[in-house]
Amino acid sequence: MRIGVFICHCGSNIAATVDCPAVAEQAKGLQDVVFTTDTMYTCSEPGQNEIIEAIKEHKLDGVVVASCSPRMHEATFRRALERAGLNRYMLEMANIREHVSWIGKNKERNTVKAFELVSIAVAKLRNNNPLYANKFDVTKRVLVIGGGVAGIQAALDCADAGYQVVMVEREQSIGGKMAKIDKTFPTVDCSSCILGPKMVDVSQHENITLYALSEVEKIEGYVGNFDVQVRKKATYVNWDECTGCGACMEKCPSKKNIDKFNEGISKCTSINIPFPQAIPKKAAINPEGCLMLQKGKCGVCAKVCPTKCIDFEQKDEIITEKVGAVIAATGYDMFDHSVYKQYGAGQYPDVITSLQYERLMNASGPTGGHIIRPSDGKEPKKVVFVQCVGSRDPSVGRPYCSGFCCMYTAKQAILTKDHIPDSDSYVFYMDIRSPGKGYDEFTRRAQEQYGVQYLRGRVSMIYPKGDRYVVRGSDTLAGTQVEVEADLVVLAVGAESAKNAPALAEKMRISYDNYGFFMEAHPKLKPVETNTAGVYLAGSCVGPRDIPTSVGQGSAAAAKVMTLFSKDKLESDPQVSSVNTSRCIGCMKCATTCPFGAIKEVTDRAGNVKAEVIETVCQGCGICTVTCPQGAIQLQHFTDNQILAEVNALCQAQLDF
Amino acid sequence: MSGSTGLLTEGQDLRIVGFLCNWCSYGGADTAGVARFEQPTDLRVIRVPCSGRIDPLFIARALLSGADGVLVSGCHPRDCHYAEGNFYARRRFEMLKQFLSVTGIDPERFHYTWVSASEGQRWQDVVTSFTERIRKLGPATKMAGGTGYDEECLKEIAAAVSLGDQCPCHKEKA
After folding, report:
1. With a threshold of 0.80, does the pTM exceed it?
2. Subunit contact A506:B78, Cβ cutoff 8 A
3. Chain B residues touching residue A99 (CB < 8 angstroms)
4. Which long-range contacts (CB under 8 A, 24 or more apart) does A47-53 make?
């Protein structure tokens, strides 16, 4: 074999703490290595051309690139090899940046380590074989999980491009958080006026199938061919018949249910349509509050329903859908401020969350858009906004900035003045974070034009005094303690990952971070892709995002899906298992351990049972390879011989016997 | 060990072999690198697709061939890229731990854990604490060459055989 080794300086990223020329020089002594060099940027065009020229000039049949992580540039260098006429799997990479130069400052030790990583890469490459991809069919349908603004945008874009979309929404209506918001910053647009038409488009689009009040139960399969199970929860209303007239809501005697859509600031009936613009506009029964379902007595709704669509016998339904791609747009949840004991732990009626305040301001909310104190219904004259509640606070496990609270607080303060002209607003803030088009101007407008008092400092305590509340905090600019008496306190609660987000991530086999937000494939360059092929992300499930970013990501994820669907056949990864039939004894242990059902039993001409891998189904995990008692089934590109060659290269150097 | 490379003269590294799954722990190690979380330099990482691909044989081979320690890391349970690879891995590693002491290898020299792709900080902690553990244990005893039999024992047997009928065990048998 003739191997070429390329050591990348990566500018000074590697060269500052690794002696690259020395590694290249030393690598000349490795078995089968006929050419080594060190280059400034191997991934750049001249760098790649150098590889291609070296392959031709030195008749190389294998290449080792020592540079950054293979998770970063393996695909780049594989393409370079292909351009030079080599098989893409005759490449090995040594990660001397993330695993060497960036984590240690001792140049001498780093250089030794870098060389050893190169030597194990060479040892493995000597056992590599060319591999060739197979082709398989794509199901050109997409599953969108979550019907917030990001999911809606993704669904509409895919549907407009002519692909079938299955949308699954956990709540009774799509719209997500945006449907609850009164106005948007910084344009002070009416939120439901700009979202509403999009929601209607979803319900009327011929390419979109909407499952509301449903959850994804199970996702199996792989890119291009996912099998999805959706649990359609019992609504006790036949939605094919329901017209959304609302007659049942008027007559329902059970009126004490917590209104989830209104963030708990009002009560609703057991049979309910959450808000007038709900999509689908269908009633559903909350079984916990329904007298008929709990006590077997009532049934008023069934009597008044003009289409007779109430069905108390309805059960959850499991629906199976075949899709080729998945877009997760599951959004976020609001931080539960009850952990802040010093702010009343959620016990003070007039200390409310920002989203509750949105519902109070919203004309379709429980007060018809009149801002009142939940305790006595009076109009507040002095409103205090407290920012960073559950953001930038490591003591409650939320060290990150939620990003949009500064902006919505400024908006709420402005709207408060619009609603109640003789009111005063105070904002306690840590820093004003307003990067975005027209954002900083907007926060300035709140202060300069609307006279909102901004106080820089954290609030240490909120306590009741008479029927008002005292907000005690610091003013770090004046260097004093301040106490503000307020009629209403609005806590700008931060965003956290949606409930059950980790469980859903596990179903989709994608990663999530410590906070439960989903991990993108690359935080800078692949913001809507995941490490699982065919699964894409949009909106706040990745981290707090404002509306324009969520919409942009919805479209971005849709574009990724369309790229995937633009091909009639996908290329399978040839790094799959393969059976050496002369060694296989037909025990089929491999088939029992395979998580994908990719191994089937066949009989050879002599009538012996043998295992056979279905190459397009195999995902290349290699569990079978370890299970096989005969070493007969080998994961290509990660065979026993290849890995043992790496181990030997690493360990035997020091053996004396 | 550095004799073979000639690049390092003193303050030698220990030989720690890491087996990391591509999707979580290798990514976690990358995340640690990107964040410049400094780590000891003793570890050399071998990338495998899944912790379920790691044959206990690889670990035994590394330790028998002179590795001072073996560190294995995969995705957290229930978060495996291949759904259940790390469950198989966990069983195999637990079995291996039982066997290592039988083969004369200190089981402390082998450690397996779970690190996700976002846990750069955790990866730094894992590498640092495992390296410290191995440094405390010191370099592994070199597997000696020779027959593999206990020389003393062989001598005793030879002496007993030379006694012929006088050998105590011969009598017992009779």
Report:
1. yes
2. yes
3. 29-30, 33, 45
4. A47/A6, A47/A8, A48/A76, A48/A77, A48/A80, A48/A83, A50/A6, A51/A4, A51/A6, A51/A77, A51/A80, A51/A81, A51/A84, A52/A80, A52/A83, A52/A84
